[in-house]
Amino acid sequence: MLAAGRIGELGPIGPADLVIAADGGSGHAAALGLGIDVIVGDLDSIEPGVLQSAEAAGAAVERHDADKDATDLALALDAAMARGAARITVLGVGGGRADHHLANVLLLASAEYADVEMDAWVDGSLLAVVHRHREIDVGEGATVTLLPVGGPAVGVRTSGLRWPLSGDTLTPGTSRGVSNVALMPMIEVEVGSGTLLAVITPA
């Protein structure tokens, strides 16, 4: 499930211009009281009652063949991009499977979404993708981990962290960016080239 558009302050639920549910994510959206605008996927895990209620409320349904070449999350992100989303927050990345979890986290950091402010919430932690520069409201005392995705992240600079980086290079597999601490509510992360995944656990 994802919400595209204007999202509230640090927290998984906030006002959104558009709510897109990926298949079984429709049930989670309904449980959270979110009005669903679009449902996408092969619809193999959605509860029939949830689908009927969403359609009755005016949700559009984009049904895809089960033998597809993309995950339901990828389809949901594409639907958001097609509708001009500038910011996307994803709720429920894993779907209970390790392969889906890993594939979807890597998907969020794809260069295809470099022009979108991409966030996800996983088990109480915020995943914020940094392609070039971001200011992130994390809350003072939050634990902040910076992980390079898809190759080295070169020219990494930070402000607002206990252990700042000043033009450093982080390579995949390094633990150097793990478990930093926010000294102020708002931090800045910049990368000259490459992509970072900032994992933020509130204090």
* CATH third-tier fold name of the largest domain: Rossmann fold
Output the CATH homologous superfamily of the largest domain. Answer: Thiamin pyrophosphokinase, catalytic domain
Beta-strand portion reads 25-35%
Rounded to an integer, what's the Rg over CA atoms?
Answer: 17 Å
Structural shape: elongated
Strands of the widest sheet, in order across it, are: 4-3-2-1-5-6-7-14-9-12
How much helical structure, as a percent, in the residues? 10-25%
H/E series: EEHEHEHEHEEEEEEEEE
Most strands sheet: 10 strands, mixed
Task: Domain count, please report it.
Answer: 2
DSSP, total strands: 14
Overall description:
This protein has about 200 residues and is of the alpha+beta class. About 20% of the residues lie in helices and about 35% in strands. It contains four helices and 14 strands. A ten-stranded mixed β-sheet has the order 4-3-2-1-5-6-7-14-9-12, sandwiched between helices. Strands 8-13-10-11 form a four-stranded antiparallel β-sheet, with no helix packed on it. It is elongated, with a radius of gyration of 17 Å.
Compact summary:
This protein is of the alpha+beta class. Helix content is 19%, strand content 34%.
Structural topology:
Layout: E1 2-4, E2 18-22, H1 25-31, E3 38-41, H2 48-56, E4 60-63, H3 72-82, E5 87-91, H4 98-108, E6 117-122, E7 125-130, E8 133-137, E9 143-148, E10 153-159, E11 166-170, E12 180-181, E13 186-190, E14 196-201
Features:
single chain, 203 residues, elongated, 4-stranded antiparallel β-sheet, alpha+beta, 10-stranded mixed β-sheet, 2 domains, Rossmann fold, Jelly Rolls, 19% helix
